[in-house]
Each structure stands twice: as C-alpha cells, then as structure tokens.
Specification:
The complex is a heterodimer of chains A (252) and B (571).
Chain A lengths: L1 H5 L8 H8 L2 E2 L2 E2 L2 H6 L4 H6 L20 H14 L14 H10 L29 H20 L8 H12 L11 H17 L11 H5 L33
Antiparallel strand pairs in A: 1-2
Chain B lengths: L2 E2 L3 E6 L3 H12 L4 E4 L16 H6 L12 E4 L7 E2 L15 H4 L9 H4 L1 H9 L17 H15 L25 H12 L5 E2 L9 E2 L5 E2 L25 H7 L3 E4 L2 E8 L4 E8 L5 E11 L3 H11 L16 E4 L6 E5 L15 E4 L18 E6 L20 H9 L4 E8 L8 E9 L5 E6 L4 H21 L3 E5 L16 E3 L23 E3 L14 H21 L5
Parallel strand pairs in B: 1-12, 2-3, 2-12, 3-9, 4-19, 12-22
Antiparallel strand pairs in B: 4-5, 6-15, 7-8, 10-11, 11-12, 13-21, 14-17, 14-20, 15-16, 16-17, 18-19
Classes of the chains: A mainly alpha (252), B alpha/beta (571).
C-alpha cells in the first residue's frame, strides 16, 4: 500500500485525501503518524499516513536531526538546482548536501550561537552586513515555505513538482529579490544561506554529512586533507591524488 | 563583588605575539608576570584535526566569540553604526597565541620611509601633498633604531626570506633561506623580470628549513600542507607564540598564565593604573588583579576599547581634532587585482603555505615617483599560493552566474587553473576614520562596544586605480587566457572585504598632543601602562603588520624592564 501512494498512477490523489479516506481524524484535524500510533491498534494505518520515507541508508549519519521529511526533500530539490548533476559528476542531491544542511541547522551554528544577537535591530546599509533577528534555522524553514508559496503562485505547483527550468526561475527570483519579503527578510538573504550551505555541503569534509564518498572533492581533483605537499607543489605537471578525509588523521 | 588577589609586578592582558613576547622577555629577566587570556590554552597536538576547512575557516574555530563582543561599524558620521553580527571582513583571534596562531606568517619589515613618512613626504612633495585631513606623522623613531628589534623578532621566529636591496638595510640575512618556488611563482618571476622589476620570495614565518632559535626552541620545516590561514600548525613549523615565546616564559616558572580570563577594566586613578578587573568566562567570577605595571597586549580593537572603557588617555574627537585614543585608525587597500584563468594548464594549487609567494618592491613606499599622483605610498604586487580549499575557492570568469549548471561547470573547470596577480596597499590615516565607544550596543558584560567609523578615502581609490594598471600589465605578460582586472575601490563593507590588518587607535609618537604612547609604547597619560600592538602604528604600510608589531613588542619589553628599575617616563 505504501507503494501505491508513491506510484505514478495514484499521483493525482494527494496525501490529504489519503488521510481523509483513512478516517484517521479527530475533530476534523488530520493526525500524523506518531499520534496515530499513540491512539493504539492502528499501526498499519500509521505507517501509511507518513509521506514516502527517505531511502534507507547504510551510513547512520544519513538521517535527519532537524528537517521533516518534506522539508528534507524540498531542500534536496533546491540544492540540486544550485549544484546540479552534470557530466562532471553528481549534484548536491547525490552528494547529500541536504543531509549536511540538516545537520548544520541542528547545530549551534543554526541558532547563531557565535554571532552578536543583541538588540536593537535596525535596517542596515549595504555595507553593514546582515542585521537579522531571525535565527538561521528559522530563516531556512521560512525560506522553504516561501519557496513553495512562490512556486504555487507562479506555477500552481509546489517547488518540488516544477520542471528544472521553472525551479531555476523561482530561485533566480529569490536571488534577485523579486519575491515578497520573508517575515521581513529580503529573499536574497535566504537564497544566499541556501547557496552557501549547498556549496559547503558538497565540499566540506564528509564528517559533516555531505560530500558523499568525497565525490565533491574528486570532481575538482582536490585531494582533501593530507599532511604534506612538498613534492607536488614543485612540479610543473598536475599531480592528481585520491581524496582523503579527516578520518584518515584519526589515530595519529 | 570582585575577589581581590595579591599584587604582582606585571599583568599582561592578552597572550598573542605582543603578550607572548613581553611575557618571555620579562620572565627571562626574572620578573614574575600574570598573563590573562580570555580564550583557551593551545598546543600543536590540538591541531591534528585542523585540516578542516569548514570548522576553522568558515566557522571561525580560532576566532573570538562575537556573541560576547564585537565592533559596530559605520562608513561615516552621518550613518548609524550597527554591530558586525557575523564574521565577514576581519577575523579576530582568540586564545593563547591570538592572531599569531591563525596568521599566514608573512613577516615583513616596514620601510625606512614608513617611520619618517611625514618628513619625507613634506620634503619631497611639499606640505600640501595630501591635505590637512590626512594626519600622517612620523613614528618618533627611525628604521635604523627599529632594526635591532626586527632582527631579534626574526631570529626568534626563524623568518625565511631573501634580502631586498631597495628595502631598509639589514644587520643580518634572514635566519633561514627563502621558501620554495612553485610554477605559478616562477611565472610571476619571469613576467616581472621581463618588465624590468626585481621579484623576491616573500618573507615567511612558515619555516623553509628546520631551525633552532636563540631561546633553544627547535621547529621542523613547512610541509606546504595548505592549512595556515585560519588554522593552527600541527607541525609547529609556522611561528606561533604558543610554540615559541610562551613556552619559554612558562619554562622560567615566572609566568602565571590564566586562560578564560577576560579583562573588562584597567583600574586607575587617572594618572596611574593600579591593576585590572577580570571575569572568569567559565564560572562568571570576578577578580581584581593589582599590579605595578599593566601591559595591554590584546587585539587593536580591544586595546582601544579597554582604554576608553577605563577612562585612560584622552579620547579622540574628530570635530575639534583633539585627543588621541581612537585616532589614526587605518586598514589596508587590497582591491587592485587581476584574476587570471588558464584553459589548458592545471597547477597543483591544492598545496601551499600561508606565506608562500613572490612580490615586487617597485610600487611600495616611495620607490616610485608620486609627483603626478593623488596619493602617497603604494602596494605590494604579488602572487601567493596559500592552497585553494574548495569551499572558499569557486572562482569563475566575470559574467558567469553565481550558481546553477554553468557555475558548477566553470568552477570545476577552473578549480586548478586560476590565480590572481593581487596587491596589498598602504592605508593613510584620515581625520574622519577613527574608533570610539558605541552609544547603543554593549558586550556580554554590559560594557560599550567599540565603534568604528571608517571608509576608504579618495587617496585609497586613486591608489587602487593606479596599482590595478600594474597588476593588469603583469597578468598580460604572464599570458593568461582570461584576465579580469578590478580597478575600483568600492565603499568599505564590514561583511565583504577580507583583511585583518587593522592598525592605530593608540598611536606612538613624540608629542602627547598627537600620540597616545611614546616610542616604548608607554602611555603619556599613565606611565605604568604600556599598550603594545599594531594599535601603535600611526599609519598602516602595505606590508603585513606582524613583523613590525613583533619588533615593537621587543622594544616595549626593554622599556618595561627599564621602567621597573627606574620608574618615570622613559623619554
């Protein structure tokens, strides 16, 4: 039955319809999986009413600390447009940039722990850096919502269901500030957060959850973290070395 | 209530290069020193996991926690200053070693011209060369007087380099030979020689060869691993106070180093300090540390802020052009550059070192004629190879989108096939560029933040225009397939520019009306307070500041020892 929900034939039936049909509501409010389970004896229904689960993974860190599965998939789709799969190799989605972003937003960085966050907040001149009270983790989620809302408005569909060219246009509008402010924040600031996180997610050490199998590094022939390049830097010819992660330094 | 501790001879505030050198020199002479450092203690083995671009460079592992303290900035007096909430332009070091842990290690001397800039400019170009709003001034001592201190600093740190004939005379060659020359450095070398220039390998604290310094500290040679800038060196090859001067001070048994100790005030009666007030940042406990001598050796910003928050010295006032604390804040002007892209050549740019590069001396100081130019001083024009880490180096030709399919393809295509001919230019003081206390924003302990009023001047914009012609000419001679030259100096942006060479605010000189400290960095207004660091520079040269900061720290140490003996003003 789970397969049914994912199958193309059933694409027209929305999750909401499915839940309504399953009858799992209390006072008109559709209940989610966890609460469904708590109600008891409906385990089978409860497994159905969550959206298709992200693929089972072998790396235990390939799991979500912060996003809902929906937010995760939307982040994957948006990051993939920032850094798409091409002849060079995998895009942000395959490189697990969205896993990286999830972990970052769940970290102290997501709550701006090392930034000066004291009031008052005034509108800044171009030259004064961002002056935002909203925490990164919240700005990112508000931005995701805005991505879907704007996609719906422009193309009558959520972002994830748009054609790649339409997704690029939506992101371009965010980047150019053509989108209404997001809780008072200019859309380019959300875009810039998304772009920065995507680039970090494809190129940071794999210990952070992205740059899967160091394939981000391999595409640009970056050898990762090694202890010495005395020989290589003197050579006229390019020396390609297989990438190494920080875990290669463990046990030293 | 603060717990009052027993009085000590000397308390040092901040344990970077300045604090480390002063502590080593004083303890070697048998003087007990209390060293207060608000960050943590460090040693080389802490850096075994330091080849982590995200953590160290983009999450600023070695930098000050801005949630506790930052600066506010405005471009001019008409604007409202707002806090620098996140790191952008400056990175401010924290912990034992300070900026001396995360620095790149480029270790120059300033020019004879720098120390006598006012006299030499007046003599050659007349009194009105820059106009009344640019308060350049002589430093109060000459290059020849500075030379022995430079020599001492270079021997302690083991600086690698080659003698440059057109710079100030050296009493000794560099303690270690120059760094290796990589293919891109050779390309710059050949092109600049063709153009009639005299390139030299830039002086480096990364150590070209194994070296034992006069204190008996042995360090291994640089491995060109490409993790200098923003990172600590796990080999100890990069000279860092935590592997050079601070271990020496500790070995004497005379250094009482207290980490996580944040000094909030210099206690004083207006003419003399009695000690300092500090907070243990872990427990929140407050302590009073009485001392005979207070040595202020934190970063430029906090040196100025501590004095202002303690009511020491006369604050600078731009309207009346009086006072000294906060005056002559200067930066550097580094926008002139020519980015080069190569279609069929790949370089091993993943390797490198913080002070690996080559430069020409022809456009620094007064090495070229300024009679028809609307600026003085100049810029070092250079090629460096720090190691291109992948998050920070996605450089694409002008006109390429900043994201998406084309961006990905171009950034990968050129990832090992680009490098710039860049520049680092001097910064002259300007009457309306200064530091004072912010009227609104406070630090985590309720003390006002430092407010920076700063923008590039007309002088700076002229310099960039002129120097960019030179970088472009060299790039053309190198023969890249695409050359993108930037010839424009935009407004100063606290979130975008990248240079941590801040100077001034507690400047040295011979006149208490126009300087805050004498040439031993002793305060005119409080003889037992020494303020050591690049805060003492009356202007900023085009060279990286640490060599000069280190030399002045040795001179200040000599002054402090004399003061402990004789008392009174040293000049």
């Amino acid at each position: 039955m789970a397969e049914d929900a994912k199958s193309p034939a059933k694409k027209g039936s929305t999750r909401r319809e499915f839940l309504r049909n399953s009858g799992l509501t209390v006072g008109g409010v559709v209940l989610g999986g966890a609460l469904g389970s708590l109600l008891g004896g409906k385990e089978q229904v409860a497994t159905h009413d969550v959206a298709p689960a992200p693929q089972l993974t072998v790396n235990p860190a390939e799991a979500l600390q912060f996003f809902t599965p929906d937010q995760y998939r939307l982040t994957q789709a948006a990051a993939e447009r920032i850094y798409p799969k091409d002849d060079n190799g995998p895009g942000a989605m395959e490189l697990n940039a969205a896993i990286y972003i999830d972990h970052q937003l769940a970290s102290p960085w997501g709550i701006n722990s090392k930034e000066y966050m004291a009031a008052p907040f005034f509108e800044a001149e171009e030259t004064q850096g961002s002056q935002i009270r909203i925490l990164r983790k919240d700005l990112f989620l508000l931005g995701l919502k805005a991505l879907d809302a704007y996609s719906q408005k422009q193309y009558d569909n959520p972002f994830i269901d748009l054609e790649p060219e339409q997704q690029d246009q939506v992101l371009t509008d965010f980047s150019d500030g053509k989108v209404p402010d997001i809780s008072g924040v200019k859309s380019p600031l959300f875009f810039s957060l998304l772009r920065t996180l995507t680039i970090e997610g494809v190129y940071a050490d794999p210990l952070y959850g992205g740059n899967k199998n160091m394939e981000g590094w391999a595409m640009r022939k970056y050898p990762g973290s090694r202890m010495a390049y005395v020989k290589e830097i003197q050579q006229d010819k390019f020396v390609e070395l297989p990438p190494q992660g920080l875990n290669s330094h463990m046990g030293h | 209530m603060a717990t009052k501790l027993p009085k000590v001879p000397v308390v040092v505030v901040g344990m970077g290069w300045a604090g480390g050198i002063v502590s080593a020199e004083l303890t070697k002479a048998g003087i007990p020193v209390v060293g207060l450092e608000r960050g943590k203690d460090r040693k080389t083995s802490d850096y075994l996991m330091a080849h982590d671009e995200l953590r160290y460079q983009h999450r600023e592992e070695l930098m000050q926690d801005l949630s506790k303290e930052t600066i506010t900035h405005r471009n001019n007096e008409k604007m409202r200053a707002l806090p620098m909430r996140d790191y952008g332009t400056f990175i401010v070091g924290d912990g034992v070693g300070g900026a001396g842990s995360h620095w790149n290690g480029q270790t120059y001397r300033f020019l004879p011209y720098d120390f006598e800039i006012k006299s030499m400019t007046d003599e050659k170009y007349g009194h009105d060369k820059l106009g009344a709003d640019y308060p350049i001034q002589d430093w109060g001592l000459t290059y020849d007087e500075m030379e022995p201190y430079y020599d001492t600093f270079e021997k302690m740190a083991g600086i690698s380099g080659e003698t440059v004939e057109s710079y100030g005379k050296r009493s000794n060659p560099y303690p270690t030979g120059p760094m290796l020359k990589t293919p891109i450095m050779k390309m710059f070398e050949e092109a600049t020689k063709n153009l009639g220039y005299t390139p030299y390998v830039l002086p480096s604290a990364n150590l070209s060869e194994a070296y034992e310094n006069p204190d008996g500290i042995s360090r291994g040679a640089c491995q060109y691993c490409a993790f200098c800038e923003n990172f600590g060196c796990e080999y100890g090859a990069k000279a860092d106070p935590a592997v050079t001067v601070i271990p020496i001070a500790k070995d004497t048994g005379q250094l009482d180093l207290r980490t996580h100790s944040n000094v909030t005030e210099i206690l004083n009666d207006g003419t003399k300090a009695t000690g300092v007030l500090y907070i243990d940042m872990i427990t929140g406990e407050e302590f009073e540390q009485p001392a005979e001598v207070v040595v202020v050796t934190s970063y430029v910003f906090n040196n100025v802020r501590l004095l202002l928050n303690s009511g020491l010295g006369k604050p600078y006032d731009s309207k009346s052009n009086t006072g000294v604390i906060g005056k002559n804040y200067a930066y550097q002007v580094s926008s002139a550059s020519s980015m080069m892209f190569f279609e069929d050549q790949e370089f091993n740019l993943y390797g490198g070192a913080g002070a690996l590069g080559i430069e020409i001396p022809e456009y620094v100081g007064d090495n070229f004629d300024h009679a028809d130019l609307k600026f003085i001083h100049g810029a070092g024009i250079r090629v460096t190879q720090y190691g291109n880490r992948p998050i920070a180096n996605n450089v694409v030709p002008k006109g390429t989108p900043a994201w998406g399919a084309e961006f990905k393809n171009q950034s990968i295509k050129y990832s090992n096939s680009f490098f710039p001919v860049k520049s680092q230019g001097a910064s002259m003081p300007y009457r309306y560029n200064y530091l004072d206390l912010d009227p609104t924003y406070k630090d985590a302990y309720g003390k006002p933040l430092l407010r920076m009023t700063y923008d590039y001047t007309e002088h700076d914009r002229e310099l960039v225009k002129y120097i960019s012609q030179k970088t472009h000419e060299i790039a053309e001679e190198i023969g890249a397939d695409i050359i993108d030259t930037n010839d424009t100096q935009n407004d100063f942006n606290v979130n975008k520019d990248t240079n941590t060479h801040n100077t001034g605010g507690v400047i040295m000189g011979t006149d208490p009306e126009t300087s805050a400290v004498n040439t031993y960095l002793q305060m005119w207004d409080a003889e037992n307070v020494f303020v050591v660091g690049s805060s003492a520079f009356p202007h900023n040269s085009s060279f990286n500041p640490t060599g000069t900061l280190g030399a002045l720290s040795y001179r200040a140490s000599e002054g402090i020892l004399r003061y402990l003996d004789e008392g009174g003003s040293l000049v």
